[in-house]
């Protein structure tokens, strides 16, 4: 079976637009001397976990990254002093990840740039009904439970 021309066009458009928007956000963060967007996503998820912190495997599920990608990201963020890794008592391999004050501040510095880019790149280009429809359509495409949980 061969996908229709419209299916192929929709797929390539979805990927192209997504990559372009992410690239624009990354460039704007870099212009302001801030870390990559993946750092924001990780810091935000760790912050949402609260004072109890989060286990790396839980973070991996929330970020939809492979285990090695999450480990590398955590290594870089920890090296920058944005998170701490604390051993879990009674679990030789377990860790809890918590934000440091510097991590909290970095995430807060990143958000206004990220938010501005979302407004400029998406909100100002689509009407509210178009945004609603886009969310609805993307929800239909999110056919796995992992994807469904990441789409509001």
Automatic annotation (TrEMBL):
PROSITE patterns: HTH_MARR_2 (PS50995). It holds the Pfam family MarR_2. InterPro entries: HTH_MarR-typ, MarR/SlyA-like, WH-like_DNA-bd_sf, WH_DNA-bd_sf. Residues 7-143 form the HTH marR-type domain. SMART domains: HTH_MARR. One of its GO terms (biological process) is response to stress. GO terms for molecular function: DNA-binding transcription factor activity. This is Winged helix-turn-helix transcriptional regulator. It comes from Ruegeria pomeroyi.
């Amino acid at each position: 079976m061969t996908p229709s021309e419209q299916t192929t066009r929709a797929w390539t458009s979805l990927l192209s637009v997504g990559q372009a928007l992410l690239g624009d956000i990354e460039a704007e963060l870099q212009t302001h001397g801030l870390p990559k967007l993946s750092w924001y996503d990780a810091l935000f998820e760790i912050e949402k976990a609260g004072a109890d912190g989060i286990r790396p495997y839980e973070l991996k599920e929330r970020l939809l990254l492979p285990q090695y990608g999450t480990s590398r990201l955590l290594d870089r963020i920890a090296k920058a002093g944005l998170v701490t890794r604390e051993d879990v008592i009674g679990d030789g391999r377990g860790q809890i990840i918590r934000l440091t004050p510097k991590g909290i501040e970095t995430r807060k510095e990143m958000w206004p740039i990220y938010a501005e880019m979302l407004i400029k790149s998406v909100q100002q280009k689509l009407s509210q009904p178009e945004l609603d429809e886009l969310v609805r359509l993307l929800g239909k495409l999110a056919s796995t439970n992992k994807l469904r949980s990441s789409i509001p």
